[in-house]
Amino acid sequence: MERLNRTPRLDNPDSDALRREILDYFHTTFDRYEQLFEVLTCDEAFTVKPIALRHPLIFYYGHTATFFINKLLLSGLVEQRINPRFESIFAIGVDEMSWDDLNDDHYNWPSVAEVKAYRDQVRQTLDRIIREAPLSSPINWEHPWWTIVMGIEHERIHLETSSVLIRQHELRYVQPHPAWPVCRDSGPAPANQLIEVPAGKTVLGKSRENSRYGWDNEYGHREIMLDSFKAAQMLTSNQEFLAFVEAGGYIERRWWSEEGWNWRDFTGAVHPTFWVESEDGWQLRLMCEQVYMPWDWPVEVNCHEAEAFCRWKAEQTGELIRLPSEDEWYRLFDLARVVEPDNTGPVNANLHLDHFASSCSVYRFAQGDFYDVSGNVWQWTQTPIYPFEGFEVHPYYDDFTTPTFDDRHNLIKGGSWISCGNESLRSARYAFRRHFFQHAGFRYIAADAPKDTPSSRYESDALASQYAEFHYGDEHFGVANFPRALACLAIELTGEGRRGKALDLGCATGRASLELARHFDQVDGVDFSARLINLGVQLQQQGRLRYTLPDEGELVSYHERDLASLGLADTADRVSFMQGDACNLKPILSGYDLILAANLIDRLYSPRQFLSQVHTRLNPGGLLLIASPYTWLEEHTPKEEWLGGFKRDGENVTTLDGLHEVLDEHFELIRGPKAVPFVIRETRRKFQHTLSEVTCWRLRG
Amino acid sequence: MERLNRTPRLDNPDSDALRREILDYFHTTFDRYEQLFEVLTCDEAFTVKPIALRHPLIFYYGHTATFFINKLLLSGLVEQRINPRFESIFAIGVDEMSWDDLNDDHYNWPSVAEVKAYRDQVRQTLDRIIREAPLSSPINWEHPWWTIVMGIEHERIHLETSSVLIRQHELRYVQPHPAWPVCRDSGPAPANQLIEVPAGKTVLGKSRENSRYGWDNEYGHREIMLDSFKAAQMLTSNQEFLAFVEAGGYIERRWWSEEGWNWRDFTGAVHPTFWVESEDGWQLRLMCEQVYMPWDWPVEVNCHEAEAFCRWKAEQTGELIRLPSEDEWYRLFDLARVVEPDNTGPVNANLHLDHFASSCSVYRFAQGDFYDVSGNVWQWTQTPIYPFEGFEVHPYYDDFTTPTFDDRHNLIKGGSWISCGNESLRSARYAFRRHFFQHAGFRYIAADAPKDTPSSRYESDALASQYAEFHYGDEHFGVANFPRALACLAIELTGEGRRGKALDLGCATGRASLELARHFDQVDGVDFSARLINLGVQLQQQGRLRYTLPDEGELVSYHERDLASLGLADTADRVSFMQGDACNLKPILSGYDLILAANLIDRLYSPRQFLSQVHTRLNPGGLLLIASPYTWLEEHTPKEEWLGGFKRDGENVTTLDGLHEVLDEHFELIRGPKAVPFVIRETRRKFQHTLSEVTCWRLRG
Question: Of B324, B350, B313, nearest to B229 (Cα)?
Fold first, then answer.
C-alpha cells in the first residue's frame, strides 16, 4: 500500500511548507476515508445498521465532514454553515446510545450521493481555507488552525472505528478491495512465554511544547516507579485463546468480573465476536471477508473476555496473570525501544496501514525482546482512563474525553494495523467501554496488583463540588479564601510558641484542616458528611482534586486543584479526616489546643449540646474559634434549639447572646465578634456572598 | 385628688434637678400603680381573670416592674436580673392571646406578697440607679436613661389599661377607694349638635428635638390640608346612644361592618359593655362600683359599636355621619386651642386624674366651641395606626408599635380621666384592636370620606421585601444599585436628544421604571407579579415604602424608603405600572424607544416567544437592553425553551449564542456583553451576589 502521511510537526517555522503539509494531510485523509466506504457493496449497506446500538455507516460518512465545519465555526475559520440540516444530523451520535435514540423512525437519512456532494463541498471549503487563511507557525493548542488538525485527526480516528463497524456488517454488504489488502500469511502459533521486565521508572504525559497534535487527555505529567514484573512475549493469539474457549471459559462464571458476566449473559457469547464456527471449523471475520482461522494472529476480544482469560490462565499457571496497567505498557514500550512511524520508511510494526489491512502473525514484528508492543491490534489495559496532573479540556472540544472519566472506559494502547496519525504515537490515549470491540486484543503480564491506581473521576455531586471550589478554588469579588483566613486567625491567636493539636469541626472538604497543619502537629478534620470529607482525603492522598462546576444552564467547566500549588503538600500528612457528629463526639477527640467550628453551629441539630460539652475537649487555655452567619433554618435546627434569632420574654435574643449564655461559664471571649466574608460559587455568574461572625473564646483555667 | 406630676422635660440643663424630677416621677408612678390594686378585695381578685383572653391582674402587677429590669438590662443601666423566673413570667402576655397561651394550667402565679416583695426590690434598684447613675442632660432617644422614662411611661399606660381590666372584673372583687373618687354629678344630656369646622391645615408628628418622652410611633412628620367638615359639639352621651340601642341597632346587620358584625355575633352584645340592665333600669359599671345610668356622661363602646351608631345616625339625619380620622381630630384640637396638662394647676379637661376617677358629663369641660376634645374618655378614630414619614423603631422596644401596623388597630385620641404622662399629650398615639374596650367613646362628624388614608402596612412578604430592598435599599459590598445602573446605561445609550417612551419589562418593584422617568417622557413598568408592582405603585402614589427584612433567625428590622430622598419625586408621575406577561404583551404596549428587560429572560416560560416579537414593540432604531445572569431553571422555563446553557449537536450553546439566533434578524448588538453585578440581601449577613450579562441591541431600519 502507499504509505499514508504521518501526523505533521506543527512547529515547522516555514509557514508555507507547513500549510502545504497540512493541505496534503487533509486531502490524503479525506480520500482514504472515502476509500474505506468503497468496500460497501450497495447503498443499503450505508443505511442498515451493522450493530443495533450504533448509527448506520451513512452517519459516519457524513460525520467527519460535519465535524470540520462545526469546529472551524468555533475557531472562526468558517463563518457560516454549509448545510445546517446535515450539520445537525451528522453532529452527534458517535457513542453507543440507548435504543430510543437510535430508533430508525427518528432518522430520515440523506442518500449516499447527497452526502458525497456535501463531503465535496466541505472538501472545497477546507481546501480554500487551508490555502488562503492566514497562518503563523507554530500551530499550538490556542491556534485557530488547531481545529483543522483536530478535524483531520478526528477523521483518522473514524477511519479506524468505521473499519470496525464495517467488520461487524453482514458479509453481503462488503467486498474485498485492492486498497485494503489483507495479510495472507498464517499458521500455528508458537508457545507464548513470560519475559522478565526489570523495575524502573516510566514517564507518561505529553508536554504542551510537543510539536505534534494531541487530544486533551494526553497532556500533563505522570512519573512512576514500577516494580519488576513479567510480560508475555507476544500478544495472545487465537490459538492461545482457543484453550480458554475449549475449557468452557465462556460458561464458567468464576473467570468473569460481575460486569463482564452481565455482558456475557446478555449477549450469550461463547467465543470471540469475530470468530465464526463453520462446517470447516473455526473461521475469522476480517473487514471485508471471512477466512480460515489464522491461529497465529492475535485474538480480538473486549476487555471482559481478556480479563476472564487472565483469571483462567492464572489458575492454569499459578502465576498472578492479569492485564497490564497503562504504566506497565509504557514500561514495555520504553524497554523495547519501539520507534514511532516516521518518514524514513515503513514502520517496524503492523501499524498506520504501512503493511496490511488486517492483523498478521503475533511473531512477525519483533520490538526488543517482545513482539507487537505497538501495532497489529490494540491492547487492553486494566486502567480506566483518567486525567493526568495538569489536564485541561480543549475549549473547542470539551467533551472529547471528560464523559469517559467515569471508571467505565479502559485505556487501549499500541494501535492496530489501521491506527494512523495521532493514534500511532506513544502518547496516544484512547479508551473504550470494556464491552466494546475494536481491532483490539491483549498481552498478559504476571505481577502483583499495581500500587498506584489514579482516580478517573471528576466530582460532579453539586454540593461536594461547590464546597471543593469554596475551599480550594478561585477567589471572587476580592474576598480572601475563607477557611484559610480562619486558619490564619486561629494560628495567630494560638501564638507562635504553641503547636499541639487542633480539631476542625465541620471540616467539609478540609481546607482549614490542611491550613492548620502548617502550624499544628496534629489536626483532626471531622465532618458529618462522608461525601465532603472524601474530597479532602482524596486531595491529601492523591495530591489533587478534580470537579466540575455548573457554568450556565447544563454547561459545566472542569477544575483541578493540587496540594503542591496550594503550598500544603509538606504538612498534609498531619491531618486525619474522619466522619463524626459534633453533637455526639467520640471520646478520643479531646486534648485539643484549638477547636475551629466554622459555619457549623447553625447546621447542628443541637448546637447547645455541642457548645455545653466542648470545654471538655480542650486543654486548659485552649481556644474555641466559632464562625457562623447565624442562618438558622428549621430544616437543620428545630426552633427550640436555636441559640438566638428569636424573641424571649419580649426581647431580642441574638445568637451572640446565646453563645454567651452557653459559653460564659467556661470561656472568656477574647476576640470578636468580627465579620469575615465568604463567597460560594453557584454558577459562573451567581454567588452566595455571606458574612460569618467570628468569635474566639479561651477556656479558663 | 393630689395632682399627679406631669411627664418631665428631659432637656433640663440642670442635671441634678432633672435627676430629682425623674426620681419623683418614678416613685409617684410606682406608688399610684400599686394604689390601683388596693381596690381589689382579696388575693383571689389577683388571680381570677377578669376577661378570658387576658392574663389575671397579678401578671400586670408584676409586669410593670419587670419591664424596668428588662429595658435597663438592654441599656446597660442594670447589669443583672433580680429574679429571672419572675422576669420571664411577667415579661410578655400583655396583648390579647389565643386561648392556649392563657390556659391557666400553664401558669403557676406567685403570691401577691411575693410579687409585692419583688416590686419592692425593683423599686430599690431603680431608686439607686436614678440617684447614682451618671446623668448628662439632655436625655434623648439614644440616651441610656431614655429606658428609665420608658419604664415610667410604660407603667402609666398600664395604670390605665389595668383600670379597664378592674372595671371588667366581677363587682365582688372590687371596692370603692378614697384614692379613686368618682364623679357624682349626672343628669339628662343636652341635645348634641354639629358645628362647622373650616378647611385648614393640620400638622402631625413629633420632632426628635421635642423635650418630652415619646413612643416610636409619635415621631416623624405629616402635614395635610383638610376640607371643611362638621363635628359634634360633644362626645356621644349614654343618652344619645340609647336611641340607637332602642332602635334595635345591635340586632340590625346593616349598621355594622363585616368585622363588627362578626364581633357582635360572637359576643351576642345588645348594648354597651359597661351598661347593666337592672330591675331599676339601666345602670353603669364604673371601675369599683355600679351606679344609676349617668345619661349625660359619654357612652363607652368599642370602635365597631361607634361605627354602627354613625351609620344609623347618618340614615336618621341624612348627613354623612362617620368617625373622624386622626387628622380631623387634630384639626379640632388645634381649633379648640386645647391646653395640655402643665404644672400651673389642674388641666381644663377630665384628664390626668386631675378631677375624677371616672367620666363626667359631656358638657362639663368646654374647649373652644367644643367639649372634651381632650379628656373624659378616649375617642375612636376611623384611622388604623400607621407610621409617620421618618418612623424608626426604638432599638430597646422594637415591638411597641410595629405589630400594630396591620390595619386592625385603630387610633384613639384625646385621653381619658386616667390618662397620665405621655398619654395626656397632643402627640400621643395609641391604637387598639377595633373590638377592644378602653375608657373610650367617640365624637361623630359629618363629612365626605377623607381623601388621604395613609398605609399602615410594613410589607412583610419575604420576596416583595427582598425586591424592595434590592431596588431601593442599601448598597452592599460597594456594588452600585442595579436597576439604577441599568437605567443610567439605557439613558446614555439612548442619547441626550431622544426622550420618548420606555418600557421596563419585568419591572418588579419598579426602581428602573422610576429612574428611566428622569429622562423619558413616558415609562411603562410591567411585571407578571402584582404583589411586586404594588410596592412600586405604593412608592409612586404615597411617596414612601415600608418593609421588614429578616435579620437573624426570626428577628427582623424595619425599613422605610421615600421617593424624595431617592431624587425621584418630580418624575414619578411619568410612570404607569401595570401587570402583564412578557410572552403575551397587550397590543397597546408598543411604540417604544427603549425596552429594558432586566433579569427577565431566564424567568419567562418562553423567552423565545418574547424575543421573537419584541421588535414589533419598538420604534425604528429603538433599543432593547437585556440583562440576565442566564440562571436557567426548569421550574421557570422548560428545558426546550432555554435560549442557551446546553449542548446542541455536541457543541456548547451559550445564552448569548441563543440571543443572537433570535435577535440578529431584526437587531444589531451595539453594546456588551458586559457583566453588571447586583446584590440581593437575604438576611443581615447573607447575600446573593450575581453578575448579570448586559447586552444592548438596536432595531434596524
Answer: B324
Share of chain A above pLDDT 90, in %: 82
- CA–CA min distance A133, chain B (Å): 23
- Bridge partners for B384 per DSSP: B410
**CA distances (Å), A107 to each of A37, A143, B637, in order?**
20, 36, 28
Beta bridge partners of B626: B597, B695
- Interface touch A645/B690, C-beta < 8 Å: no
Band (A102; pLDDT cuts 50, 70, 90) = very low
Contacts with A555 from chain B: Cβ below 8 Å: 645-647, 652, 654
Mean pLDDT, residues B42-54: 90
Contact (Cβ atoms closer than 8 angstroms) between residue B493 and residue B671: yes
Chain B interface test: which of A685, A694, A695 (most B C-beta within 10 Å): A685
pLDDT value at residue B649? 76
In angstroms, the separation between the Cα of residue B91 and the nearest Cα of chain A is 5
pLDDT at B95 over 90: no
Of A220-229, A494-503, B678-687, which range is least confident?
Answer: A494-503
Chain A / chain B CB contacts < 8 angstroms? 124
Q: Say if A399 is an interface residue toward chain B (CB within 8 Å).
A: yes
Chain A touched by B74 (CB under 8 Å): yes
**Among candidates B668, B627, B632, B678, which has minimal Cα distance to B653?**
B632
**Which stretch of DSSP H or E encloses residue A65?**
helix A57-75
On average, the pLDDT of chain A sits at 93
Dist CA A300 CA A272 (whole Å): 7
Q: Does B209 touch chain A (CB under 8 A)?
A: no
Q: What are phi and psi of B292, to 5 degrees?
A: -60, 145
Is the CA virtual torsion A167, A171, A175, A176 positive or negative? positive
What is the per-residue pLDDT for B331?
97
pLDDT tens digits for range A550-580: 999 988 888 889 999 999 999 999 999 999 8
Whether residues A553 and B691 touch (CB distance < 8 A) is answered with no
Residues of B in contact with A630 (CB under 8 A): 552-553, 685
pLDDT digit string, tens, across residues A447-467 = 998 877 776 667 777 888 999
B650–A675: do the CB atoms touch at under 8 Å? no
Cβ pair B552:A88 closer than 8 A: no
Q: What local confidence, expressed as pLDDT, does residue B418 receive?
A: 98
Span A123-166, pLDDT tens digits: 999 999 999 999 999 999 999 999 999 999 999 999 999 999 99
DSSP state of B495: -
Is residue A97 over pLDDT 50?
no
Encode pLDDT of B566-609 as tens digits. Answer: 999 999 999 999 998 998 898 899 999 999 999 999 999 999 99
User: Chain B window 625-644: which residues touch A at a Cβ cutoff of 8 Å?
Assistant: 629-632, 642, 644
- Interface membership of B649 toward A (CB under 8 Å): yes
- Here the cell at position A123 is 472538501
CA distances to A67, A217, A420, A505 from A399, in Å? 13, 11, 22, 38
- Compare CB distances from B92 to A646, A650, A691 and report the shortest one's residue: A650
Residue closest to B633 by CA, chosen among A694, A554, A584: A554
Q: Which residues of A touch B652 (CB under 8 A)?
A: 398, 555
Cβ partners under 8 Å of residue A227, min gap 6: A199, A447, A448, A451
| A87 and chain B in contact, CB less than 8 A | yes
Cell numbers for A350, please give them.
Answer: 503492523
Give the DSSP per-residue string, B450-465: PS-----PPB--HHHH
The predicted pLDDT at position B100 comes to 43
Chain B touched by A478 (CB under 8 Å)? no
